[in-house]
Amino acid sequence: MAAVNQDVVEKFLDSNPAFAKEYYDSHFRAQVISNMLSTSKNTNVDTTNYHNLSSTEESEMVFDMVRDLQENLQMEKAMFNLMRHLCFVMRADRMSLFMYRQRNGTAELATRIFNVSKDATLEDCLVPPDSEIVYPLDTGIVGHVASVKKMVNVPDVTQVGKPSKERPTSFFIIIPLVGAELKPVLKGSILKPDCQPLDVTGWTIKNVLSMPIVNKKEEIVGVATFYNRKDGKPFDEMDETLMESLTQFLGWSVLNPDTYEKMNKLENRKDIFQDMVLYHVKCRKDEIQNILNTREVYGKEPDECDEEELEAILVKTLIDSEQSEIFEFHFCDFEHSEMDLVKCGISMYYELGVVDKFHIPREALVRFVYSLSKGYRRITYHNWRHGFNVGQTMFTLLMTGDLKRYYTDLEAMAMLTAGLCHDIDHRGTNNLYQMKSGNPLAKLHGSSILERHHLEFGKTLLRDDALNIYQNLNRRQHELVIHLMDIAIIATDLALYFKTLLGCQAMFQKIVDQSKTYESWDDWTKYMMLETTRKEIVMAMMMTACDLSAIAKPWEIQSKVALSVAAEFWEQGDLERTVLEQQPIPMMDRNKAADLPKLQCGFIDFVCAFVYKEFSRFHVEITPMLERLLNNRKEWNALKEEHEAKLAMLEEAKKAKEEAASANSVAQPASGGAPASQSKTCVLS
Question: pTM for the whole thing?
């Protein structure tokens, strides 16, 4: 009987791979996996109860690693663990990950996690930015893989650079120095076409299998490289197939940290920009003294005063509601300064009865309304005055128009806040211009671009503790007010209103019709208070009525405001003509300014009339708005007819002049003047 030695066993196993795999799975796989994944070298693991791993179970292990990537904030650690597992599955001695990037316009590869083995630690393998190995794409095997985006298998590195019938190669292998010799690599790439030891342990590279990692767009992301198969043989086609499938998981692990890092940077930028916005918009300590003059009265700052002391100042500082006429539909802001409007805004919260009921801190209320006024840009029409007027009309519809009967105090507070916030940080151009000009807002918000921006701006202010008038609401109350603000502010998008014009009008009209079927007003009120959807429909129509309310002001107010609106439209038209090189629509073309009365009549007929007619039918208290709208329609129509009469006169004069010229051209030959052909030529010129 022949003696059995190591060589005989190895030959038998090589000749019988199926038996070798079965034996390995039964006796060694569980222990090897345990040793490879354990973080402590001294940990003893009982493997007697482990069962054989099927291919499905092995795949689940890899997916567990991927899930760990998604759930663990330490992305590099999860990626490192996955690389250790891949190294084991591929039977490779070591593995490295090289990341692709563009720096100063030059494509290059840099080490991310380097020299991973089963006994390695993350600290040893994670390459910090100041010690990374960087080299261009046209250098070495890894650079070649990144360039051609194809796998490269080098069975014998001693043959690299020498021609081969099977795998002709014309490049050197890049062997970065490791351990204590890492720093010299920073001065340049190291070319080692031989098999000299690379570190103090005597480790050398014998064979290499390198695979590109690409994203969905087939763009190079990185390169995964395995070194030295454990059995000393070259990597074969089975290894290539296995690597091709397993590298997908590594690709996910690479893209996840990068995405996470980018999200972190974006989040940091957002926080920085938010701080910048708040710095310029937030009511400063010196500014708040314009309303809460605690330094003068008490010799201290507002945050050092109690609520009673602040209330005592506000009683004296705020403008009397009757004197300011904030309860009136004909309210005119022309007579008030911007600071007066801030004070009137604060007064409206008091008149709603929500300051004490919801424990709104006086200082926060003052700072919030003051900051709103600063958040509106100093533009022609969509400025703080417009923002306040919309909030004041909402307040008047609730109080004077008696629509508050359907809403709780909490809901009314949200509606007033939405009115005041609804156009904050408006740019003086509409949504269509944001899209045409490629404004970042258009890329951020798919629809209702500016409205969503106004909403987010208002929420940003409310998230600041010093400005948060909702800070003492419970969670349910807070969710409700934010929900109502969402609906109310988005409802001011007239383009959205036009898209659903018939639907909106039909729903609102149905509610108005239904109200007329109730004999008891109290019964109708009780019914409406419980109908959340109907209340939201009415609220949305209220926001439309508020946003358009300038059209329902007395003529002396409406005529001036209309010119401001038109002026802002013309400014956008100028931008469209100069910046976008497009012809503006008539409404925004200052060359057609004389058509303003005609445009106003059309605006009243097709947009405004329905809103105010139905609200007047719904609540008779709102009738003054309809009456002024109809009066303004008469005024604009008179101007339109006057303009049309002038145009008709000009047309008649032009026609008469042409007829006279024609008659003269015929009469000249009869009087012995120039020949007819010469006369005709003179007239045409």
Answer: 0.63
